[in-house]
Every structure is written in C-alpha cells, then in structure tokens.
Design a protein that fits this description.
alpha/beta; Pantoate--beta-alanine Ligase, Chain: A,domain 2; globular; 282 residues; 6-stranded parallel beta sheet; 2 domains; Rossmann fold; binds pantoate; 10 helices; 3-stranded antiparallel beta sheet
Length: 282
C-alpha cells in the first residue's frame, strides 16, 4: 500500500492499473478513519480490482466559524487502517496541491442543498461538489463509495454525477454505529465523557421517531415535535435541525405519504453531529 501526495503520482498509478485492465474504486475521506470508513473501503475492495482512498481535509467545505483547524488528522493511523482493509493507494495531498494560486472554478448545485446541512452550512456543498469533482477527475474511478450518515451529501453527489454526465457509479453504504447506537464519526473524538453520553440523544430521538412511524403516525410535525421534546431534555444538547424531507428533493414534507428521510443535526457542547434514517428502511 502506497501513500502519494501529488495528482501526477495518482494518475501514473491509475494509468498502470488501467493498462493491466484493472477496475478502480475510490473512497473519498477527510481522514481520521473509523469503522464507517473501513466498511466503505472493504466494500470497494470487494467490488474493484484496486482501491484508492483519498485523505484530504477539504478547506473549501468548512465555513469560517467551523472546525477546519481542529479537525483530527493522523495519516499514520489512517494508513494502518487502509492497509488492514486491503486498500491499495492513499492520496493525501496538501491543500496547495488541490487548490493552486488563482484557483477559481467551482461546482455548485441549486437544488437539494437548500435544506438540512445546506441551510446550516451555506458554503458546505459547493466545497464538497468541487472537491469530489476534482477527485473524480484525478482518479477516474469506476465506482465511488459514500456513507449514508451524510445522506444529503450522497443525494447531492448522485445528482451531480447525473447532471454532469460523470461516468462513475455512486455506491451508498450503511451507517456504522457504536454498540450503544451512536453513529461513527471522526468528530466523536471531540466529545468528553459527559458529552459522549449526551450524544446518544441523536440515535435515541431517531429511534423514537421511527417507533412513532411504525405505529402509524403520518404527521411529520407531530413526529418532529416529539423528537425535539426528547432532545431538549438533554442539557448538553442544542438542536440545529430535526427534519423530515422527501428523499428525492430533500424538501420538507408535512405528511408521510412518500419515501422520506428523517434527519437530525445536534450540537453536543461545541460538536455538531448528524444522524438519520430512511423511512423505507423501517
Ligand atoms: O464525507 C466526507 O468525508 C467529505 O465530505 C468528502 C466526501 C470526503 C469530501 O471532502
């Protein structure tokens, strides 16, 4: 398993693989890898002859008051995990390699990004779409793998690939959780012991919402109110959003009369965490 830092090195390696007729999978990440990433890498290794994992904390998708500086980084630890999962190449560029002086082209989307994380983080999806497009152009993978914890991101990337005729299959992989239900996230490392306990309000509020839906509740307002009431009881939690949206448009709906995504974003102390479920999976 190799770690490379330049676009040229990735291209040279991928050219060699292509000359041998091998298929290539890409797992884009921001590093500090956990079991969620491991499941993406293992799925890619199973589906493709070769797997590239990009490790790049993308400055463009962070707002000015967000955690770009403190975002956890440990490339040696990441390399061990990629090796264990059977990955073949890590692309770990410096910001200057991805965004040279005078960089001024962006990929942006006017649909799907107006709600949920797009509303709370206005520059986020422009940064994601731009960097993912660049990674796709650099690696030219057959398939690319993204986690369903970032459900809106997955929808945005699928839409972008379709809009821009990118010849890449997008594979969405299930959320991986801790034993007590907390969705795995690199940002969980920010939590102290009390916050770690408090963070369970995300998965537990979703379980509450899912229970109401299973019992036949159709009113999104009633489900959301109950979930918010539950989260508000936790003193360390501050709700960013609790929403139910149409899976296709990511727009809020009133009645559960179509496949929907129930998504939460909650600050636990200073750490913003997200989680969700799709009603179709209930
Ligand atoms: O999901 C992430 O980790 C990032 O948003 C991604 C897709 C690697 C782009 O920077």
């Amino acid at each position: 398993m190799k770690i490379v830092k330049t676009v040229e090195e990735v291209r040279a390696q991928v050219r060699e693989w292509r000359a041998e007729g091998l298929s290539v999978g890409l797992v884009p990440t921001m590093g500090y890898l956990h079991e969620g990433h491991a499941s993406l890498i293992k799925t890619s290794v199973r589906d493709n002859d070769r797997t590239v994992v990009s490790v790049f904390v993308n400055p463009m998708q962070f707002g000015p008051a967000e955690d770009l500086e403190s975002y956890p980084r440990d490339i040696d630890r990441d390399a061990e995990l990629v090796q264990l999962c059977g990955g073949d190449l890590i692309f770990n560029p410096e910001p200057e390699e991805m965004y040279h002086d005078g960089f001024s082209s962006f990929v942006d989307m006017t649909v799907l990004t107006q709600e949920l994380c797009g509303l709370s983080r206005p520059v986020h999806f422009r940064g994601v779409c731009t960097v993912v497009t660049k990674l796709f152009n650099i690696v030219k993978p057959d398939k690319a793998y993204f986690g369903k914890k970032d459900a809106q991101q997955l929808a945005v990337i699928r839409h972008m690939v379709d809009d821009l005729n990118m010849d890449i299959a997008i594979v969405g992989c299930p959320i991986i959780r801790e034993d007590d239900g907390l969705a795995k996230s690199s940002r969980n490392t920010y939590l102290n012991a009390d916050e770690r306990k408090a963070a369970l309000v995300l998965s537990k509020s979703l379980a509450l919402g899912a229970g109401l839906i299973r019992n036949g509740e159709k009113s999104c307002d009633r489900i959301i109110d109950k979930m918010k009431e539950y989260i508000d009881k936790e003193p360390l939690a501050r709700i960013d959003y609790v929403k139910i949206v149409d899976c296709g448009t990511m727009q809020q709906i009133k009645e559960l009369d179509r496949p929907a995504l129930c998504a939460v974003a909650v600050f636990i102390g200073k750490t913003r965490l997200i989680d969700n479920f799709f009603t179709e999976d209930l």
